[in-house]
Amino acid sequence: MRRVRYEHSGGPEVLFLEEAPAPAPGPGQLLVRVAAIGVTLPVVRKVREPREPIALGGEIAGEVAALGEGVTAYAVGDRVTGLVFGHGYADFALLDVAMASPVPDGASAVDAVALVRSGLVAYGALEAARPEPGESALITAAASGVGHLALQLARLRGAQRIVAAVSDDRKADFVRGLGADDVVTYGADSWGEPVDYALDAVGGELLKPAVGALAPHGRLVAYSSGGGTVEAYDLLVGAKSVIGFQMALIARGRPETYEKWRGELWDLFLTGHLKPCVSAEFALSDAADAHAAIEGRSNLGKVVLIP
């Protein structure tokens, strides 16, 4: 089989395609013939970290090709999606049963990687914000794989006004088409009227203006891997709060909640209320171009690899 890996840190140029034997599923694992791979910012960032190379894991969807010992919930030929922690940029990948879920009829493998993991992060971040109908919302990275779903979910949860923050004003038409009322770019002097809550997927230097965009008693949910610092005084003067959110804690510690959210996402998709958008599909051999698209912030929605 083919897989993508790298031997030292750097940009997209360090990724290369190699031949490797297909893995064998261990106890509690599925061997999946991969049909689609979701490219995420955390994985892209890890390639640049000055550390030992890691297996490029992440979101996959495909067909079960073999079952590990003790697996009874799935059969060969079933369509599944899930998060892999080993090599996921590959023709075949090992998926733990605990991280797997079926892909329903009416959805493709591309739909699955565009919806499930990104949608769960968007859904969970919104839950952490405790939105009330009629409130106003700010979504940063609103054109990203997670952000464009968070924007739609905020509207479905009753947001009266949604401000979409994007890196480039050329993305304005895209986010307006998904329901944004106002669009701002990160370097703007003002982000308009204050909002009741913000979902921040960027972090770093963007945390300060995101906190500044909150109305008194506003809530900011930080779910970015980009780090950043918030000044306590900026919170005190408006009685504002910052809430951290990490999807992995929900998946490990509250599996029933994780499953409930996942089911609700599929229901919203299958009824046409939630529309995951795919910016671009790349061949497995073009993984470097997919990473470059994420780093260059050119994507509108999800970036997907197709083996």
Q: Mind explaining what this structure looks like?
A:
α2 (109-129) crosses α3. The strands form 3 sheets. Strands 3, 4, 5, 6, 7, 14 and 15 form a 7-stranded mixed β-sheet that branches. β14 (278-283), α9 (287-295) and β15 (302-306) form a beta-alpha-beta unit. The protein is globular, with a radius of gyration of 19 Å. The chain has 307 residues and is of the alpha/beta class. The chain has helices at residues 41-48, 109-129, 147-156, 172-177, 207-212, 232-236, 247-253, 255-270, 287-295; strands at 2-5, 16-19, 29-39, 58-67, 79-84, 92-96, 100-102, 136-140, 161-166, 182-185, 195-200, 214-222, 241-244, 278-283, 302-306.
Shape: globular
Average pLDDT value? 94
- Percent helix: 25-40%
Q: How many E strands?
A: 15
Spans of at least 5 consecutive residues whose pLDDT stays below 50 are none
Gyration radius (Cα, Å) is 19 Å
Measured between the Cα atoms of the first and last residue, the distance is 10 Å
By oligomeric state, this entry counts as single chain
Q: Which structural class is indicated by helix and strand composition?
A: alpha/beta
Topology:
Blueprint: E1 2-5, E2 16-19, E3 29-39, H1 41-48, E4 58-67, E5 79-84, E6 92-96, E7 100-102, H2 109-129, E8 136-140, H3 147-156, E9 161-166, H4 172-177, E10 182-185, E11 195-200, H5 207-212, E12 214-222, H6 232-236, E13 241-244, H7 247-253, H8 255-270, E14 278-283, H9 287-295, E15 302-306
Parallel strand pairs: 8-9, 8-11, 9-10, 11-12, 12-13, 14-15
Antiparallel strand pairs: 1-2, 3-4, 3-6, 3-15, 4-5, 5-7
Helix pairs in contact: 2-3, 2-8, 7-8
